[in-house]
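PROTEIN DESIGN WORKSHEET
SECTION A - STRUCTURE
LENGTH: 439
TOKENS:
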């Protein structure tokens, strides 16, 4: 009942405040997308329409704010790729095997595309970027806390069943996408209470990821560890933190879990049925894409043709990239893949910059966003989850960050350049790649 009252209160406050400050409404909307309160406290009452209410209020507030600023600076290619990907989805739907199925997928896509555009046009300050970053991490950590509480108190592994309408593999990808940001916050923040909160969040998310028994999530974890090692300063305290996390992960991986994970890299004759079927599904996706290379068979249509390929009706391809390739053709999967890759590449110089008191938070955010993107891109190869909201919202923060670190092209005056204001958005210098770095 407390959870019900809390969510209703947040919904009411968020919807009202969003009319004047749509950024607050966006924060609430994103928090609900990660927290998914209907799956946490649904037994206490109905949560139907709460996100929609906040979303509508945010849209109205966005309109009152004249739709924010579309000056994205260095982030414009990222926004452009998402817009082109969305347009391609509409075009692909028009030639789909079953257009009705494809068109039914488009409203779900709009539920994260529109918040992305709204956030990219509204979030202009480092403070707002950090706040949303923390909201995503803490919301995921709270869900992970509930999973761990049930596991230790009752011995029931809810994470192994999935969460929020996702099965264990999809939920594992969701966790991996937020683990990197949590770890980066734990290492990079200076305030003791923020660091403590980030450490607890990272520990909860890490253990819950292992509880999902997802092999794709494990590969994603390894990729996050590698990228974190490359990005982070090579000082003893940072290396020690990474080693400690690795040892904890090994300790929490029991024999049963290790045996399952071992099949991820097994030879053909040693793979279990689940791993072998994924490879066969990917081969079929490739064949379908070769048959319809431009627009594909239409969003959501792989499950429509699965039976004709010898699979059970409604079968998914178990790969975000391979299924998108089959459903939206080579251009469609290219737009989606480049959306994430370009964002990571644009943020790389920021993450690798020499850390100062002025740019500390930008470096932390950029590092966390890159690890999140890599975690999703790698683990997404094993799960059909192109519509997972978290990586898009994290990338949205990256667009805001790129806007902040982009200098004005032609400042009207020396005074304006010093103040750092042009067109109503904050201007900070771009960060060069300089080593060594210290936190």
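SECTION B - SEQUENCE
RESIDUE ASSIGNMENT:
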């Amino acid at each position: 009942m407390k959870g019900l009252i809390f969510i209703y209160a947040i919904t009411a406050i968020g919807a009202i405040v969003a009319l004047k400050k749509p950024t607050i409404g966006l924060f609430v909307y994103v928090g609900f997308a990660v927290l998914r309160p209907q799956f946490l406290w649904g037994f206490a009452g109905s949560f139907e329409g709460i996100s929609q209410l906040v979303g509508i209020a945010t849209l109205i507030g966005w309109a009152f704010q004249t739709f924010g600023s579309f000056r994205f600076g260095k982030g414009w290619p990222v926004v452009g790729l998402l817009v082109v990907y969305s347009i391609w989805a509409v075009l692909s739907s028009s030639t789909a095997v079953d257009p009705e199925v494809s068109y039914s997928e488009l409203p779900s896509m709009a539920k994260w595309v529109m918040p992305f555009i709204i956030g990219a046009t509204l979030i202009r300050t480092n403070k707002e970027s950090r706040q949303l970053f923390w909201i995503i991490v803490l919301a995921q950590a709270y869900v992970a806390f509930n999973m761990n509480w049930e596991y230790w108190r009752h011995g029931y592994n809810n994470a192994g069943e999935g969460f929020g309408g996702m099965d264990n593999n999809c939920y594992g990808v969701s966790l991996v996408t937020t683990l990197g940001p949590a770890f980066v916050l734990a290492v990079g923040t200076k305030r003791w209470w923020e660091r403590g909160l980030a450490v607890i969040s990272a520990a909860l998310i890490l253990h819950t990821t292992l509880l999902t028994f997802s092999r794709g999530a494990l590969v994603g974890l390894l990729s996050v560890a590698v990228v974190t090692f490359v990005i982070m300063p090579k000082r003893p305290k940072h290396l020690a933190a990474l080693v400690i996390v690795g040892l904890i992960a090994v300790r929490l991986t029991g024999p049963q879990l290790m045996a399952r994970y071992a099949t991820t890299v097994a030879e053909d004759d040693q793979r279990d049925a689940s791993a072998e079927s994924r490879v066969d599904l990917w081969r079929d996706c490739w064949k379908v894409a070769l048959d319809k290379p431009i627009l594909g068979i239409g969003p959501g249509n792989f499950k429509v043709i699965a039976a004709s390929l010898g699979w059970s009706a409604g079968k998914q391809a178990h790969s975000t990239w391979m299924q998108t390739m089959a459903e939206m053709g080579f251009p469609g999967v290219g737009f989606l893949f480049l959306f994430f890759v370009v964002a990571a590449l644009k943020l790389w110089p920021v993450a690798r910059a020499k850390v100062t008191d002025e740019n500390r938070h930008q470096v932390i955010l950029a590092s966390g966003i890159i690890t999140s993107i890599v975690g999703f891109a790698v683990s997404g190869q094993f799960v059909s989850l192109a519509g997972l909201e978290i990586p898009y919202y994290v990338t949205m923060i990256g667009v805001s960050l790129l806007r902040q670190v982009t200098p004005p092209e032609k400042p009207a005056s020396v005074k304006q350049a010093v103040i750092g204001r042009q067109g109503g958005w904050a201007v900070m210098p771009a960060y060069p790649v300089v080593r060594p770095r210290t936190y």
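SECTION C - NOTES
Residues 320-351 form the longest helix (32 residues).
The chain has two domains: 1-67, 69-267+314-408.
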